[in-house]
TrEMBL record:
Biological process per Gene Ontology, one example term: methylation
A molecular-function term among this protein's GO annotations: protein-arginine N-methyltransferase activity
PROSITE patterns linked to this entry: SAM_MT_PRMT (PS51678)
Active site, per annotation: 323 (proton donor/acceptor), 332 (proton donor/acceptor)
Protein species of origin: Coemansia reversa (strain ATCC 12441 / NRRL 1564)
Protein name: Skb1 methyltransferase
Keywords: Methyltransferase, S-adenosyl-L-methionine, Transferase
GO cellular component: cytosol; nucleus
Domain PRMT5 TIM barrel: 9-176
InterPro entries for the chain: Arg_MeTrfase, Arg_MeTrfase_PRMT5, PRMT5, PRMT5_C, PRMT5_TIM, SAM-dependent_MTases_sf
Top-level taxon in the UniProt lineage: Eukaryota
Site label Critical for specifying symmetric addition of methyl groups, positions: 215
Amino acid sequence: MTSKWAGEGDNAEALVRKEVEFGEYVGLKSVVAPAVVGGDAAASYGQLVSSLVEAPEPQTVLVRVQLEESDAWQRWNRVRLMSNSSTRLQVLLELSGKSDGDGRTVVQHWRAEPVHVVVLPARLFLQNAGGYPVLRRWDQEAMHQWMDLGVALAVQQGDDGDAEVKDCVRYLRHLAETRPTTAAHCAASDAYRDVLQAPLQPLMDQLASETYEVFEADAPKYEHYEAAMIQAIVDTAAARQDSDRQIVLVVAGAGRGPLVSRALHAARRSAADVAVVAVEKNASAVVELHRRNMSLWGGAVDVVHADMRRWAPAQRADILVSELLGSFGDNELAPECLAGALERLANVCIPRRYTAYVAPVSSSALFRSAREFGGTHALETPYVVNMHAARVLAPEQPVWEFSHMPGDNVHSQRSNTIKFRVQGPALVHGVAGFFDAELYTDVRLSICPATHTAEMHSWFPMFFPIQVPLAVADGDEVLVHMWRRSAGAKTWYEWCVDTPGGTSGLHNVNGHEFWIGH
Ligand SMILES: C[S@@+](CC[C@H](N)C(=O)[O-])C[C@H]1O[C@@H](n2cnc3c(N)ncnc32)[C@H](O)[C@@H]1O
């Protein structure tokens, strides 16, 4: 193979292989391939890099991507696709340092890619009054964002007159030391960045005590529930004629009791006479409810071990409160549990309605992790994940809603197609899912990026992967098709993504890979 990109003689491939071999001999964990090329030589370059990442040596290959090339991303994407998105392929990103552009835009565009190192040319640095190199404010922020993504930074020696590399490095160290600290409520979530988790199934499974403990640490969530309960109690008290009768509030799916404590508090704060009933189907959690009833609630709570779908109390309640919301709103089967229960049990439901949202998402990290779980199964299963090295390609849009008001239709199947105009170029790896909920009137909870409830950390977004990623250009129209289907004791989602270049095909048809059990 002869090519200019290696810049040496007439057998560039042999030269590259020799250098890789030497790297292996001296024990290097990674080797940097020559700068990625476009045009006619792109296929040969991709073939060579693919053969390196498939070689038995456990080295990572860093593909040098020069941002000054207008088709830098497309060049990288071609190599990545030729190498079947190998986990041993990463990016060494060379900033151009020419433009006065905002460095944060580069992070935004590249955060979904497996960037290992960012190389800053020394000319990117300005001189401060003392003659030392500094970065523009937005470039400082960009460096903080790269550090946050765990990306290494390197400085490339410039021409005469550019800053000294050692001074630039000292400045970058200073930036690292003065990075804004993470808020306490984020610190716990940070440990789960880009970690795929199976969605909880609190109806089919019996949750463990430590899972409840994690829920209970999310004070903002319970504060919102308490605010909703106060309003519902006040409205119920105002609407009723026979003011002697106690208001009955049922916490359905009480777990170890955090909403029960909040219900008692809400009753005190609204100065109303409220009887609180705690219903829970997990026998072990019921033991803890009895313990708390004795030790914390003075025996004031009626603890019932029952499934809310079948529980038949002697007296209809006024307010039904439940926290069966999943990352996609309805994925913990709140509709199946609440719709029927509401008809028999109460007039008012908290939450009153919840909406699922979707958006196309790009993330090499999430796609690779899902694929590593194994085969088609892993890429036809939704995950819950604290998305970090990911790029949501268009603002999220509602896909469907469930409402629990008297007289609402209780059927639980849904489907919809949503059209997005995406920011590209990018590789679509799947669909991100979010939800928001109206607990009561204006008291809302949200995990949508645009409206996220402050400091609430109970829910990470959902990720619905697709088996074969789809490339999109800036401004392309992307269609996301979603279905929520049920049969017998199972509910599941099916999904499909269409881009101008192709379709992902339908995922999880008939729930054959993933379903939620009733
Ligand atoms: C997400 S947890 C929330 C628990 C608690 N409210 C909290 O905030 O910690 C949902 C709870 O609902 C219970 N649950 C789910 N489906 C139920 C049903 N049909 N009847 C009664 N409890 C149910 C589960 O066992 C679990 O304890």
